[in-house]
Amino acid sequence: MKKQTFLFSSTILILSALAAKLTGAIFRIPLANMLGGTGMGYFSSAYSIFMTVYAVSVTGLPAAVAKLTAEKSALQRYSDLRRVKSSALLFFSAAGLAFTAVTMLLAYPFCRFSGGGMAAMPAVLAIAPSVFFSCVTSVYRGYYEGLRNMFPTAVSQIIEGLVKLCSGLALCLLVLKNPHKFESFFVYFRDTEDPLLPIAAAAAVMGVTLSSAAGTLFLILRDKISGDGISREELSSTEKDIDSRRNIISALLKTAVPIAVGALVTNLTSLIDLVTIMRSLSSAAEKYPGFFAEISGNIPTAEIPNFLFGSFTGLAVTIFNLVPSCTNMFGKGILPAVSEAFAARDHKQVRLSTEKAMFATALVSFPSAVGICVLSGEILGTLFPTKPLETEICTFSLSILGIAVAFLCMSSTVFAILQAAGRPDLPVKLMLAGVAVKLAGNLLLVRIPQLNIAGAAISTLVCYTVICLPAIDAAVKLTNADISYLKGIFCKICYCSVMCGGSALLARNMLAEVLNPLPLLIISIFCGVIIYILTALLLGIITKNTLNLLIS
């Protein structure tokens, strides 16, 4: 079997993630413009609840399947490879059905606990079947990623993004354009500002479910038609000594459960936002009604917490998640390589893989973080031109979240290294510490009226800082990576990123009076990128040796 290199596989995944995120942004940006802060509050509430269940049932599964597949491949146990896939499909399909049922049964109590009530419940019910489809999808993706074939994952991501974009917006628009067809449901949402918005949000969420079903269908058909590239000769040579399904499922759970717990803890940050932000804002709005009425315009007092929460999650957090969703692909790309190297006891390859993954992540995430920080207002104003109030509210929060991007991106890549190294428990412990910081920060800072939702952004930054630094230290020790090299390269990239942000800010200030928002943003980004590349070349960050490191 021909296997893809780290850079090639990561590039495939990054390009597909960019395409998926582009379609996701095209989906969420007009969706936010259609639903506004209030409607996005219902959408985000459902999504936050769904992601918590998703973390338990799905997250960790691709990594576990990829790790076990990579280990079997390194040992040339090809019959075991097939059994890994079939066993995982049987077990986790059943688990997916169970978790879908649990999500639907507990939809109302979840919504009541979060403060969303009946208004968020239709969206939760609409998204629940995605859990089942995601379980099946994750098995196929993890299997082919373990074989270092990233094309199935990449194509399925693009298909999901396109289906979500088309079906989600179409269904939402259908509801908004035909309110008379849904009047019979208004009685359930009579306490809301606009009883049509919960239905429209649920229609948009249905696009997510349809997209996950489309991705699953593609992977099943692709597997049936093209196969995995293992020849009959390779299978027949390893048929005598095949692991039992029980042993394989046990090995999968041994890796998947700690990762899933870690992902659950990670998603607890979103759940903490869901629970604490609106309740803290409600408390603050009661104490300082004049201040919140001033910043929220004509929004009814009872809807202000949901409006601010929806603005924060629908606008600022959407932009915040763009870069990590792409750099996460470095972790996906490196996990099979590190797993194979550990299985083969190739310590040099373990070290080199760790260094290249951290270097590549820093090279992309550091300048992106600074750019989002200094251009937050221009980014939001360009992407959400019909929502000036929401944009104004979220600008400071996005500036803070911009810096957090670097720590989140590095954490995701390092977590993949720790999982491949056989220590999936470490991310869980670090995330628990981060979640504690996040919870305390939200409860303390969001209640301050001058900060309000920016308090959640600050606690997010502190949370991922607390997580990232010890994670890097643990990964370096486990893989014997060259800490001096990493410190030196990180410092150089930080300097180049500051220069990038400074030049972008300078260009924005000089041209703000003569250019419209879109060309202003494009030129500012272009100036920052040019300065970043030039300084990276001058400081020796981008050289023939570093390029060879990434390509190898």
Outline of the structure:
By secondary structure, the chain is mostly helical.
Notes on the protein architecture:
The chain is mainly alpha-helical. Helix content is 82%, strand content 0%. The chain contains 21 helices and no strands. The longest helix is centred in the N-terminal third of the chain and has 52 residues, at 6-57. The radius of gyration is 23 Å and the shape is globular. The mean pLDDT is 83.
Low-confidence runs: none
Ends apart, CA distance between termini = 18 Å
Secondary structure: helix percent: over 70%
Order of helices and strands: HHHHHHHHHHHHHHHHHHHHH
The helix count comes to 21
- The coarse overall form would be globular
List the helices and strands and how they pair.
Elements (H helix, E strand, L loop, with lengths): L5 H52 L3 H14 L3 H28 L1 H8 L6 H7 L2 H17 L4 H27 L18 H31 L5 H5 L8 H43 L1 H7 L8 H17 L1 H22 L3 H28 L1 H8 L4 H33 L4 H21 L7 H27 L3 H29 L5 H22 L5 H8 L1
Helix pairs in contact: 1-3, 1-5, 1-7, 1-8, 1-10, 1-12, 1-13, 2-3, 2-6, 2-10, 2-13, 3-6, 3-10, 5-8, 6-8, 7-8, 10-11, 10-12, 10-17, 12-16, 13-14, 13-16, 14-16, 14-19, 15-16, 15-20, 16-18, 17-18, 19-20
